[in-house]
Amino acid sequence: LAKTTQPISMDSYEGQEVNITCSHNNIATNDYITWYQQFPSQGPRFIIQGYKTKVTNEVASLFIPADRKSSTLSLPRVSLSDTAVYYCLVGGRGGSQGNLIFGKGTKLSVKP
Amino acid sequence: EAQVTQNPRYLITVTGKKLTVTCSQNMNHEYMSWYRQDPGLGLRQIYYSMNVEVTDKGDVPEGYKVSRKEKRNFPLILESPSPNQTSLYFCASNPTGSPEQYFGPGTRLTVT
């Protein structure tokens, strides 16, 4: 099973770009990389998913190098409301939910 | 409103007393999962289900049972709860082919 490693915590200031890197050395050929955001006392919320290169949506970008052994979630111009825990998840595409490994997450603190 | 509901939200029980945590989704999703979240350990998958009558073990299935008799419901059963099952539990669902899991509000279980 592909395990993930992320920094335990990161600090940033409002308006800055934040990049959170996730290491997944044992990623399998059919694994996708998915990121979730979690606020205290709430369930996680989907942010973005990708397989290779770059994916962008309205809230974030995901950069995946050619070897796919790591990925970087990029949050542009963070605000105080982006303070949360961010999880990198490696697993089967889309609805294949077997043996998903969430990892311990990165606690992002955004300061004014 | 599309949602995943869990009941109860909070439960305090004693060792050995069987309990069931219900999970229901109104989005007609095929996939459903149960996770537990513990400080410092992140989210860990307990069981998942790909459709009615199809379930499989996740990362930490010991001490838990599930059933999927109807598409919308995926109850988590603790036949003989123990203190090490004190945790925050999340149910999630997603449609086949979609990476986005919808999480419930969580159930905080304390076993004394």
What does this entry look like structurally?
The complex is a heterodimer of chains A (112) and B (112). Chain A has 112 residues and is an all-beta fold. Chain A has strands at residues 9-13, 18-23, 31-38, 45-50, 53-56, 61-64, 70-75, 84-92, 106-111. Chain A contains no helices and nine strands. In chain A, the strands form two sheets. A five-stranded mixed beta sheet of chain A has the order 1-9-8-3-4, with no helix packed on it. Chain A has a four-stranded antiparallel beta sheet with strand order 2-7-6-5, with no helix packed on it. The radius of gyration of chain A is 13 Å and the shape is globular. The mean pLDDT of chain A is 89. In chain B, the strands form two sheets. In chain B, strands 2, 4, 5, 6, 9, 10 and 11 form a seven-stranded mixed beta sheet that branches. In chain B, a hairpin with a 3-residue loop joins β4 (31-38) and β5 (42-51). Chain B contains no helices and eleven strands. The N and C termini of chain B lie far apart (36 Å). At the A-B interface, β3 and β4 of A face β4, β5 and β9 of B.
Give a nutshell description of this structure.
In chain A, 0% of the residues lie in helices and 48% in strands. Chain A is an all-beta fold and 112 residues long.
Q: Kindly state the percentage of residues in helix of chain A.
A: under 10%
Give the low-pLDDT segments of chain A.
none
Structural class of chain B: mainly beta
Strand content of chain B: over 45%
Q: How many helices of chain A? A: 0
List the topology elements.
The complex is a heterodimer of chains A (112) and B (112).
Chain A: E1 9-13, E2 18-23, E3 31-38, E4 45-50, E5 53-56, E6 61-64, E7 70-75, E8 84-92, E9 106-111
Parallel strand pairs in A: 1-9
Antiparallel strand pairs in A: 2-7, 3-4, 3-8, 5-6, 6-7, 8-9
Chain B: E1 4-7, E2 10-13, E3 19-25, E4 31-38, E5 42-51, E6 54-57, E7 65-66, E8 76-78, E9 87-94, E10 102-103, E11 107-111
Parallel strand pairs in B: 2-11
Antiparallel strand pairs in B: 1-3, 3-8, 4-5, 4-9, 5-6, 7-8, 9-10, 9-11
